Amino acid sequence: MSKGLQDHSLAEKLENAIKQLGFWYRISIIIVLVGLASLSGIISMSQFYFHDEIAKYGQIQEIFIQDKNITVLAFLPYSEEIFPAEGIVSLYITQVWLMYGNGVVIALLSFLFVWVTYRGKAHTQEFESIEQQFIRQSYLVNFETSVPEGTTKVEKILNEAIHVFPALKEVQRKAKLKQTKIPYKLAQKYNGETIDGIVSTKKGDFIVKFYEKTVSESDLINLVKILSKSRDKIFRVLCVAPDYEEDLQSNKLVEIMDKIPKYFKLDLIFEEEHGYSMLWID
Does the structure show a pLDDT above 80 at 152? Predict the structure, then answer.
């Protein structure tokens, strides 16, 4: 993300990213259209010159071969001298130009592919950065300033998480159409470890794991190892506990979380008497 946008609000950053994405998209479409038009023009010119040269010395007609009962295309020359040297050279030059033209078009489209890929990655990273900031803000607003609603622990935290993650919101929207609650699985076993709640989303499984003790670094490593062995894709894991060991609440937390090998996001949450507070947002 450019330095000039770092002081802007999230809304301004998002608006700028959308504008840039729209601009580069229009440029890409124009380049693609130019490339296709060029290729079409080259092919059309090649066919025109080829047929024009052929027509000078004869014509192509369909001939029915009665013995074999088939129809074939044949070139019928106007004279015995079918192709003089000039005609052969002319056709050769036409084909050379065709190859050069195709090379230019291929190079143009290759450049377009590389360019769009590069720009696409840059904008994707920008949107991901903005999304992470929104998630952090939503976490703070929803988890730390509201009283969770629900009849069970899993239901309470999912009702809060719905307002943070669009993937869960989509699941809830579909459930409302069926006049049901958000579907989730309870007390699922993962290689002997009990997982309290799982919601299946398009991005993967959204998992909630509750602890009734002080969570240590080894607990997190063990949880990640167990979940990583699952064949199901995991989107995010919420680790909820009443307390965490001192190292996890110190300036060592960043180093500890960074060195735990995982492909999914892992958030650490304090479970308090009347709600939750965040320790780590991945």
Answer: yes
CB-based contacts of 186-194 (< 8 A; 24+ apart in sequence): 186/154, 190/226, 190/227, 190/229, 190/230, 191/226, 191/229, 192/226, 193/222, 193/223, 193/226
User: On the CB side of 220, how many CA atoms lie within 13 Å of its CA?
Assistant: 28
Reading the block at residue 89, the tokens are 């050279």
pLDDT at 12 over 80: no
Nearest to 243 by CA among 264, 214, 205: 214
Residue 2 above 50 pLDDT?
Answer: no
Q: Are 270 and 276 in contact (CB under 8 A)?
A: yes
Q: Highest-confidence range of 137-141, 183-187, 204-208, by mean pLDDT?
A: 204-208
Output the pTM of the full model: 0.60
Dihedral sign for Cα 40, 43, 46, 52, please.
Answer: negative
Identify the sign of the CA torsion 149, 152, 154, 155.
Answer: negative
Which contacts qualify for 54-57: CB closer than 8 Å, 24 or more apart? 56/87, 57/81, 57/82, 57/83, 57/84, 57/87
Q: Is 34 helix (H, G, I), strand (E, B) or coil?
A: helix
**How many CA within 13 A on the CB side of residue 152?**
11
Q: Quickly tell me which residue has 């450049």 as its tokens.
A: 111
Query: For residues 89 and 246, what is the distance between their CA atoms, to the nearest angstrom?
Result: 85
**Residue bearing the bigger pLDDT, 219 or 49:** 219
DSSP conformational letter for 147: -
| pLDDT band of 82, cuts 50, 70, 90 | low
Whole-number CA gyration radius for the chain? 33
